[in-house]
Design brief:
The chain is mostly loops. It contains one helix and no strands.
Length: about 40
Amino acid sequence: MAEQLRAQKHAFMFFTKAPTPGLTKTRLTSARGGFLTPQEAT
């Protein structure tokens, strides 16, 4: 059990470009199951 506690865990994090202000966030609209209206997503 002591060996399990000493084991290091690694994670790979992948980031894409940051969202550009003013572009529509279509994945968050109510048409796709999100919580924003089309007006709020722009």
